[in-house]
């Protein structure tokens, strides 16, 4: 799952860089449209990854518990913001 997300990020970075490189050859309105398309596609792909993760969380096995310092940190943070 992490690898898929990293691949998506790299793909989007390349698309944005390629679009920005064309800034001198396209007008600002077209640039805005192209960047908007990239953003929309990124959100769609991200939501797809989230849905996939959400569907598979119950199937995942926990290899080991989190370190006590990590658990203590999150408990304190949760108390501070009123979650617990």
Report on the architecture of this protein:
- This protein has one domain (2-81).
- The chain contains three helices and no strands.
- The protein has helices at residues 2-21, 28-56, 68-81.
- The protein is elongated, with a radius of gyration of 20 Å.
- It starts with a helix and ends with a helix.
- The mean pLDDT is 84.
Keywords, separated by commas or semicolons:
mainly alpha; 75% helix; 84 residues; 3 helices; elongated; single chain
Q: Domain count, please report it.
A: 1
| Main pleated sheet | none
Strand content: under 5%
Q: Could you tell me how far the N terminus lies from the C terminus, measured between alpha carbons in angstroms?
A: 29 Å
Count every beta strand, where a strand is a DSSP E run of 2 or more residues: 0
**H/E order of the elements?**
HHH
**Unreliable runs:** none
């Amino acid at each position: 799952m992490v690898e898929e997300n990293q691949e998506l990020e790299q793909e989007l970075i390349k698309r944005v860089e390629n679009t920005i490189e064309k800034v001198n050859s396209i007008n600002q309105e077209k640039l805005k449209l192209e960047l908007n398309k990239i953003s929309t596609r990124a959100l769609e792909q991200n939501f797809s990854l989230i849905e996939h993760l959400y569907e598979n969380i119950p199937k995942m096995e926990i290899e080991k518990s989190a370190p006590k310092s990590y658990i203590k940190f999150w408990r304190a943070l949760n108390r501070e913001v009123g979650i617990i």
